[in-house]
Design a protein that fits this description.
alpha+beta
Length: 212
Protein backbone atom coordinates (compact mmCIF):
# COMPACT_ATOMS: atom_id res chain seq x y z
CA UNK A 1 0.00 0.00 0.00
CA UNK A 2 1.31 3.45 -0.96
CA UNK A 3 0.20 6.93 0.00
CA UNK A 4 -1.40 9.00 -2.77
CA UNK A 5 0.37 12.26 -3.59
CA UNK A 6 -1.19 15.63 -2.76
CA UNK A 7 -1.40 16.41 -6.49
CA UNK A 8 -3.28 13.16 -7.17
CA UNK A 9 -5.72 13.80 -4.31
CA UNK A 10 -6.44 17.26 -5.74
CA UNK A 11 -7.03 15.73 -9.20
CA UNK A 12 -9.45 13.15 -7.76
CA UNK A 13 -11.36 15.91 -5.97
CA UNK A 14 -11.61 18.01 -9.14
CA UNK A 15 -12.87 15.05 -11.17
CA UNK A 16 -15.39 14.16 -8.48
CA UNK A 17 -16.79 17.70 -8.41
CA UNK A 18 -16.89 18.17 -12.19
CA UNK A 19 -20.31 17.84 -13.88
CA UNK A 20 -20.73 14.26 -15.16
CA UNK A 21 -17.23 13.58 -13.85
CA UNK A 22 -15.81 10.15 -14.55
CA UNK A 23 -12.69 8.48 -13.26
CA UNK A 24 -12.09 6.35 -16.36
CA UNK A 25 -10.61 7.42 -19.70
CA UNK A 26 -9.44 5.48 -22.74
CA UNK A 27 -6.32 6.06 -24.85
CA UNK A 28 -5.43 4.05 -27.96
CA UNK A 29 -2.55 3.35 -30.30
CA UNK A 30 -2.20 1.60 -33.67
CA UNK A 31 0.08 -1.41 -34.10
CA UNK A 32 1.35 -2.20 -37.60
CA UNK A 33 1.47 -5.84 -38.54
CA UNK A 34 2.69 -7.89 -41.47
CA UNK A 35 3.87 -11.50 -41.11
CA UNK A 36 4.37 -12.80 -37.59
CA UNK A 37 7.70 -14.43 -36.92
CA UNK A 38 5.82 -17.09 -34.93
CA UNK A 39 2.13 -17.59 -35.74
CA UNK A 40 -0.38 -17.58 -32.90
CA UNK A 41 -1.80 -20.99 -32.04
CA UNK A 42 -4.78 -19.66 -30.08
CA UNK A 43 -6.55 -17.44 -32.61
CA UNK A 44 -5.85 -16.81 -36.26
CA UNK A 45 -4.62 -13.29 -36.98
CA UNK A 46 -4.57 -12.38 -33.31
CA UNK A 47 -2.03 -10.57 -31.14
CA UNK A 48 -3.70 -11.44 -27.84
CA UNK A 49 -0.81 -13.69 -26.79
CA UNK A 50 1.69 -10.91 -27.60
CA UNK A 51 -0.30 -8.35 -25.62
CA UNK A 52 -0.45 -10.70 -22.62
CA UNK A 53 3.27 -11.48 -22.82
CA UNK A 54 4.60 -7.97 -23.39
CA UNK A 55 2.17 -6.26 -20.99
CA UNK A 56 3.16 -8.70 -18.27
CA UNK A 57 6.83 -7.89 -18.86
CA UNK A 58 6.20 -4.13 -18.78
CA UNK A 59 4.07 -4.27 -15.62
CA UNK A 60 6.76 -6.41 -13.98
CA UNK A 61 9.50 -3.87 -14.71
CA UNK A 62 9.22 -0.23 -15.87
CA UNK A 63 5.45 0.11 -15.28
CA UNK A 64 4.86 -1.58 -11.91
CA UNK A 65 2.76 1.45 -10.92
CA UNK A 66 0.03 0.29 -13.34
CA UNK A 67 -0.16 -3.13 -11.67
CA UNK A 68 -2.22 -1.63 -8.86
CA UNK A 69 -5.69 -0.61 -7.69
CA UNK A 70 -7.52 2.25 -5.98
CA UNK A 71 -8.20 1.85 -2.27
CA UNK A 72 -9.14 5.37 -1.22
CA UNK A 73 -8.25 8.93 -2.13
CA UNK A 74 -5.27 8.53 0.18
CA UNK A 75 -4.07 5.02 -0.67
CA UNK A 76 -3.20 2.88 -3.70
CA UNK A 77 -2.57 -0.86 -3.52
CA UNK A 78 0.32 -2.42 -5.46
CA UNK A 79 0.27 -6.09 -6.46
CA UNK A 80 3.42 -8.15 -5.89
CA UNK A 81 2.83 -10.30 -9.00
CA UNK A 82 1.40 -9.57 -12.45
CA UNK A 83 -1.62 -11.77 -13.28
CA UNK A 84 -3.25 -11.25 -16.70
CA UNK A 85 -6.97 -11.79 -17.09
CA UNK A 86 -8.32 -13.06 -20.45
CA UNK A 87 -11.93 -12.33 -21.39
CA UNK A 88 -13.91 -15.17 -23.05
CA UNK A 89 -17.47 -14.74 -24.33
CA UNK A 90 -19.72 -17.25 -26.14
CA UNK A 91 -22.78 -14.93 -26.16
CA UNK A 92 -24.32 -16.77 -23.22
CA UNK A 93 -21.59 -16.13 -20.63
CA UNK A 94 -18.70 -13.73 -20.19
CA UNK A 95 -15.80 -15.05 -18.11
CA UNK A 96 -12.42 -13.59 -17.18
CA UNK A 97 -9.77 -16.29 -16.73
CA UNK A 98 -6.41 -15.65 -15.10
CA UNK A 99 -2.89 -16.85 -15.92
CA UNK A 100 -1.31 -17.16 -12.49
CA UNK A 101 2.41 -17.53 -13.25
CA UNK A 102 2.50 -15.42 -16.42
CA UNK A 103 5.36 -13.24 -15.16
CA UNK A 104 7.62 -16.34 -15.20
CA UNK A 105 6.44 -17.71 -18.57
CA UNK A 106 7.99 -17.57 -22.01
CA UNK A 107 5.79 -16.61 -24.95
CA UNK A 108 5.22 -20.26 -25.91
CA UNK A 109 3.95 -20.99 -22.39
CA UNK A 110 1.60 -18.00 -22.55
CA UNK A 111 0.14 -19.36 -25.80
CA UNK A 112 -0.33 -22.81 -24.28
CA UNK A 113 -2.11 -21.35 -21.25
CA UNK A 114 -4.50 -19.31 -23.41
CA UNK A 115 -5.38 -22.39 -25.47
CA UNK A 116 -5.89 -24.52 -22.34
CA UNK A 117 -8.14 -21.89 -20.77
CA UNK A 118 -10.17 -21.50 -23.97
CA UNK A 119 -10.70 -25.27 -24.22
CA UNK A 120 -11.85 -25.51 -20.62
CA UNK A 121 -14.13 -22.50 -21.11
CA UNK A 122 -15.76 -24.13 -24.15
CA UNK A 123 -16.21 -27.39 -22.22
CA UNK A 124 -17.57 -25.48 -19.22
CA UNK A 125 -14.91 -27.11 -17.04
CA UNK A 126 -13.10 -24.08 -15.62
CA UNK A 127 -11.91 -24.37 -12.03
CA UNK A 128 -12.07 -21.74 -9.30
CA UNK A 129 -8.32 -21.27 -9.81
CA UNK A 130 -8.90 -20.47 -13.50
CA UNK A 131 -11.28 -17.62 -12.64
CA UNK A 132 -9.41 -16.24 -9.63
CA UNK A 133 -8.74 -12.46 -9.62
CA UNK A 134 -6.28 -10.93 -12.09
CA UNK A 135 -4.32 -7.67 -11.88
CA UNK A 136 -5.22 -6.47 -15.40
CA UNK A 137 -7.63 -7.67 -18.09
CA UNK A 138 -7.54 -8.05 -21.88
CA UNK A 139 -10.67 -7.99 -24.06
CA UNK A 140 -9.90 -9.10 -27.62
CA UNK A 141 -12.45 -8.24 -30.34
CA UNK A 142 -9.99 -8.49 -33.24
CA UNK A 143 -11.95 -11.44 -34.67
CA UNK A 144 -15.02 -9.22 -35.15
CA UNK A 145 -15.78 -6.22 -37.37
CA UNK A 146 -15.85 -3.84 -34.41
CA UNK A 147 -14.30 -0.44 -35.11
CA UNK A 148 -14.00 0.76 -31.51
CA UNK A 149 -14.01 -0.58 -27.98
CA UNK A 150 -14.37 1.27 -24.69
CA UNK A 151 -13.50 -1.43 -22.14
CA UNK A 152 -14.55 -0.94 -18.52
CA UNK A 153 -12.08 -1.62 -15.73
CA UNK A 154 -12.59 -5.04 -14.18
CA UNK A 155 -12.55 -5.34 -10.40
CA UNK A 156 -9.61 -4.07 -8.36
CA UNK A 157 -7.46 -3.02 -11.31
CA UNK A 158 -6.00 0.16 -12.80
CA UNK A 159 -6.05 -0.77 -16.51
CA UNK A 160 -7.98 -2.92 -18.97
CA UNK A 161 -6.77 -3.44 -22.55
CA UNK A 162 -9.07 -3.75 -25.57
CA UNK A 163 -7.95 -5.04 -28.98
CA UNK A 164 -9.64 -4.55 -32.36
CA UNK A 165 -8.37 -4.97 -35.92
CA UNK A 166 -8.83 -3.11 -39.20
CA UNK A 167 -7.11 -4.81 -42.16
CA UNK A 168 -3.44 -5.13 -41.11
CA UNK A 169 -3.68 -2.59 -38.31
CA UNK A 170 -4.40 -3.56 -34.72
CA UNK A 171 -5.80 -0.95 -32.39
CA UNK A 172 -4.92 -1.30 -28.72
CA UNK A 173 -7.05 0.77 -26.37
CA UNK A 174 -6.35 1.13 -22.66
CA UNK A 175 -8.97 2.30 -20.20
CA UNK A 176 -7.37 3.52 -16.98
CA UNK A 177 -8.33 4.76 -13.54
CA UNK A 178 -7.56 8.47 -13.10
CA UNK A 179 -7.48 7.98 -9.34
CA UNK A 180 -4.30 5.90 -9.74
CA UNK A 181 -2.52 7.16 -12.87
CA UNK A 182 -2.85 9.69 -15.71
CA UNK A 183 -3.04 9.89 -19.49
CA UNK A 184 0.63 10.72 -20.13
CA UNK A 185 1.75 7.64 -18.21
CA UNK A 186 -0.65 5.43 -20.20
CA UNK A 187 0.61 6.98 -23.44
CA UNK A 188 4.19 6.08 -22.52
CA UNK A 189 3.07 2.56 -21.65
CA UNK A 190 1.36 2.24 -25.05
CA UNK A 191 4.45 3.56 -26.86
CA UNK A 192 6.54 0.81 -25.27
CA UNK A 193 3.89 -1.86 -25.83
CA UNK A 194 3.56 -0.95 -29.52
CA UNK A 195 7.29 -1.25 -30.16
CA UNK A 196 7.52 -4.54 -28.32
CA UNK A 197 4.57 -6.09 -30.17
CA UNK A 198 5.80 -4.90 -33.57
CA UNK A 199 9.14 -6.59 -32.86
CA UNK A 200 7.33 -9.94 -33.24
CA UNK A 201 6.56 -9.19 -36.89
CA UNK A 202 8.90 -9.31 -39.88
CA UNK A 203 11.28 -6.37 -40.03
CA UNK A 204 13.76 -4.87 -37.61
CA UNK A 205 12.23 -2.96 -34.69
CA UNK A 206 14.26 -1.42 -31.89
CA UNK A 207 13.00 -2.00 -28.36
CA UNK A 208 12.43 1.14 -26.33
CA UNK A 209 13.29 1.88 -22.72
CA UNK A 210 12.20 5.14 -21.08
CA UNK A 211 15.15 4.97 -18.71
CA UNK A 212 17.91 4.54 -21.33
Amino acid sequence: IEQTSIRKRAEINNLRNAPEGKFQSTIGIMVNSSKRTVQSLAFENSIQDLVVYETTKLLSNDFTDLNSFYISDNEIGRYNNVIPGISFDDLSRLTVCSIKEAYTFKLEEIRKNIIDLLERFEKNSLTSEDISPSTFTISDLSQTNSSYIFPLINGRQTIIIGIIKSQNIYHILVTFDHRVTEGLRISKFLDNLKIRIESHFSGEVELKCDFC
